[in-house]
Design brief:
Elements: H1 2-22, E1 26-32, E2 38-44, H2 45-94
Antiparallel strand pairs: 1-2
Length: 108
Amino acid sequence: MPAIKLIIYFLAAVLIGSFAVQNMTSVEVNYYDFRFNLHTLELPLVTAVMIPLGLGLFCAWCLWLSSWIKMRMVIRKQNKTISSMEEELKKLRNTPQIPAQVESSIDS
C-alpha cells in the first residue's frame, strides 16, 4: 500500500510541475485594499491559481481539525462515563442480594 501512495504522490507532483511550467505567463491580478483603493499585481498564472487552492486546502484542514478535536472530546467523555458505569456495576455485583419480600394479600 505505501508503494501505491508513493506512485500517486509522484504522479501528482509531475502533474503540478508540468502545470507550473506550462503556465508561467504573467497575469494581472486586481484587488482592493482596506481603503477600497484598486491595486494591480503582476503574478505568474501558476501562482495566481495555487495560492487560492492552498488557502482553500488550509481552510478545509482547519475545519476538519476542529471537528476532529470535538470528536475526541466526546470520545473522552464517553470513555469516562463507561469507566464510571463499569465501576458501579462491579460495586453492584459485590453487594449481597436481599431476598424479595412476598406480599401477602389479606382480604378484608
